[in-house]
Design goal:
25% helix; binds heme C; globular; Chalcone isomerase; alpha+beta; 21% strand
């Protein structure tokens, strides 16, 4: 009897020492998101989870097996407009002949540029058995004043760790930004450097300000 009691205590304590698995954010519920970034009030980043949420958790085509989530403080109308045009051009590409190139050129989509002060936050989640797991990083684009980075849309790029630590920030002329961010985003210069390929949650068009 005594032995059994001791044994159960032992089992219990081993049980208690087991590392607690971090809860996975499997449900598409806003409550799963924890504001990762502390500070950077000038961008409003200390409260980005309260901003309009454009996506839920989307499987990213770019990073296989990862999930992303997008929030914006303003420029939502422009994002939606560009997303619709992106979908259209995607559909048009499917049945387009090479001979129609001139025609396609003439019908270039009329993408909108984003207002100064637009901040787009992309959370990147690891996959946990095919569902969104732990946050791995937060990447941000912030539209600065005219002349901040002429020819590159005046965007400032930021990369934060899951703990909110800033890894780097800057415009396209900064080497780390050029290689890590801008080299890709420059492919959509016609869309003001924002891919706008995802939209899955109904948000109203209202900007925060
Ligand atoms: C390999 C190409 C590539 C690189 C490098 C890259 N991105 Fe992106 N980014 C994309 C694509 C593609 C999307 C659209 C969403 C998706 O498919 O994942 C995107 C989306 C985004 C978005 C959401 C707005 C949008 O464009 O639709 C932000 C914000 C963003 N990236 C910031 C960054 C930052 C900051 C860096 C550097 C730390 C970076 N990206 C590096 C390709 C890239």
């Amino acid at each position: 009897m005594r032995h059994t009691f001791k044994l159960s205590l032992l089992v219990l304590s081993i049980g208690l020492y087991q590392p607690v698995a971090q809860a996975s954010c499997a449900a598409a519920a806003q409550e799963c998101r924890v504001n990762a970034i502390k500070g950077h009030e000038e961008l409003g980043l200390n409260n980005y989870v309260s901003w309009p949420w454009l996506t839920g958790y989307e499987a990213s085509g770019l990073h296989w097996n990862q999930f992303i989530s997008l929030s914006m403080n303003k420029g939502i109308k422009e994002y939606k407009h560009n997303y619709a045009l992106y979908l259209q051009s995607f559909l048009n590409d499917e049945d387009e002949d090479d001979e129609d190139e001139e025609e396609a050129e003439a019908a270039k989509p009329n993408y909108k540029t984003y207002p100064v002060g637009t901040t787009i936050v992309k959370e990147n989640y690891l996959s946990d058995q095919g569902k969104p797991g732990n946050l791995s990083s937060v990447t941000v684009m912030h539209k600065r004043e005219k002349g901040f980075d002429s020819g590159s849309g005046d965007w400032e790029y930021f990369q934060f760790g899951a703990d909110g630590q800033l890894f780097f920030r800057g415009g396209s002329k900064k080497l780390v930004v050029k290689h890590s961010c801008h080299s890709c985003h420059m492919n959509v210069a016609d869309r003001d450097f924002v891919f706008a390929t995802m939209l899955s949650v109904q948000t109203n068009d209202g900007d925060l300000e």
